[in-house]
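Regression test attached.
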Amino acid sequence: MKKGKRLYEGKAKIIYATQDKDLVIQYFKDDATAFNNQKKTTIEGKGVLNNRISEHILSNLSQIGIKNHLVKRLNMREQVIKLVEIIPIEFIVRNVATGSLTKRLGIEDGTVLKEPLIEYCLKDDKLGDPLIAEEHIYAFEWANKKEIEKIKKMILRINDFMIGMFRGIGIKLIDFKLEFGRLKVNGKNEIILADEISPDTCRLWDSITDKKLDKDRFRKDLGDLIPAYTEVAKRLGILHEQSNVSAVNVTQLSSVKKKNK
Ligand code: UDP
């Protein structure tokens, strides 16, 4: 598949056109940002791990009927995805209170929620992705009620599936962010899951030790981000057990891919 012109560059990914107007290439960068872009760095190998982990999760989700934008992974850093009209909302799903929720409402960090909590943030970097109510979505027509009802149902299934998947490998799914898009199918709009699901967009804690295996390692200057993401990939069965935990060994992903062909 030939990579065409760059259509969009975000904080962690670049989108390129292809010869097919309905498909684009999503390139995973090594850039890490936090706190509304105030903290920035490059972490070698992060994009490779996120590409692979996101591919794994999205293809598992499509096997349980959750339609999503992934067509196929192309190489270490790129995947072909369906071009969708992104709904400008970040859907935050929480199982355990931490991060901005605890700060905003004074909830004790680590409080297990009785039911998953869905929060909505407007996707707008200039405004710092502000928290909004469901009513704002309808008032400003960012999505309609039918779409949000459908998305909520999808979110709960995704959450159930992901909790189980991670529990099976000794990881607690604390919270995560999802994005959805509209796809025209036979003249009708269909809602599908878009963006990525990776340790950049989820909080993942080791089930026994509560060790953070996600982007909080960067946000909170805990270090060792690549070993943590590698640990997630290994436990998911994407990386071989014997591979050493270092940025260099991210290259092992390519040999795994070749062997699987
Ligand atoms: N999240 C994300 N992108 C964002 C904001 C949040 O992927 O722009 C994810 C984040 O990694 C976490 C969850 O959404 O898994 C909830 O994040 P929170 O609202 O607590 O934000 P933070 O504390 O990171 O500011």
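Expected vs. actual: identical. The domain at 88-206 is CATH 3.30.470.20 (D-amino Acid Aminotransferase; Chain A, domain 1).
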